[in-house]
Amino acid sequence: MNTQLFYLLILVLIVVIVKTPWFKGVIGEFIINVSSKLLLDKEKYYLIKNVTLPTKDGTTQIDHIIVSTYGVFVVETKNMKGWIFGGEKQSTWTQQIFKHKNKFQNPLHQNYKHTQTLKDLLGLTDNEVFSLIVFVGESTFKREMPSNVTEGLGYIRYIKSKTKEVLSISQTKEIASKIKVGRLKPSLKTNREHVNHLKKKSNDLSCPKCGSKMLLREAKRGSNTGNKFWGCLSYPKCRGLRDYNIN
Fold this sequence. Notes:
By secondary structure, the chain is of the alpha/beta class. 35% of the residues lie in helices and 30% in strands.
């Protein structure tokens, strides 16, 4: 193999990896990790990332948890581009890139289970736990969003807008300790078991539009090529969709 062909293959491999949902997720989490450390006072805010917690029906996976005296912020990250349409009470939102449209689960609904799991684990109330959605990438909201659905570094402003102390310093230390003790060890095995849990859970999923069973599908074209999603069994008669990462 000559040198030019070798580097060409390496370049192709990099392009393929960059386009995968896995890589997009990694980049999104990296942005949150770095910006949190740089823009939030380490003495006041404690960042815990990639937390997998056991639940009654399996596991749930949380991108980031930020613990402070101003509350516990449960962060769900979305690395997407294009126009984003959605409302607080809608079951699915829409991503539009030119004429191509893609449905995905309302991230507020997705993050609801995360916040409830943490409340049960830590014995906290609604006034002490905040759900926070962060869109990173080249996305633009085309409708007014709730204050806890943000773009880019807007999540920092949301966190800093909470100025009333609802937890003591000793409580925040205890909460961080409980999360560390209660979480499953971060590893490839933990992630694999969580993915298997999601696949088994598909048997209980129903179409948000018609109530039929859902099938795991993979986008074959457009900007979301390779992305997995749950599609209605009655397609094309019904085009109901659910986001793949229902956790």
